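User: Structure please.
Assistant: Input sequence and predicted structure:
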Amino acid sequence: MEGTNPVNKKLAAALSGGAVLVLALTGCGGDDSGDKLNSWAQQVCEGVQPQAKKIEAANAAIQKQTSDSSQPADVQKTDAQAFQDMSDAYKAMGTAVQKAGAPDVEDGEQKQKAAVAELNQLSTSYASLKKQVEELDTEDQAKFADGLKDIATELNKLSESGNDALKALEEGDVGQAMAQQASCKSASASASATTS
């Protein structure tokens, strides 16, 4: 069994980084904004919150599967399901932002489109990781560990590069309006808990 546990832990750590992406869609602090913007923020936050919880649960499932006694087949099954859940969650977030329309701010439409594209791209990336993990050889411990290492590297890249458009979407007034929403606050708190 030697060799898999550190790799599993590395994978779990990389995944925690992925949860940071959810934070990009949740507000922190700020003043009241216009009614139009508040109503937009409420719609987005309500669409995002259940997905943030789904991503948190997927992260937790992978963290749980990182003990010394974890069998490759179990790790594979858990990881594949978690990646599927994350893929679905980011897609649903993209749909929520799309449905809400453009926020009532300068370049709102452009920022909204970029964020939707980014969320859809994240959904595709996690779907691709699911495929990768399903194709790993669970019979060969060393090969499986190597495969997981590659997936952890991909995850690190995702968590580093994946949220510029989301950050841009919630700059200034948008972020302040989102900060007023109870659903965004709870999404932010649960994502913070996952990343610590």
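Residues 103 and 193 are 28 Å apart (CA to CA).
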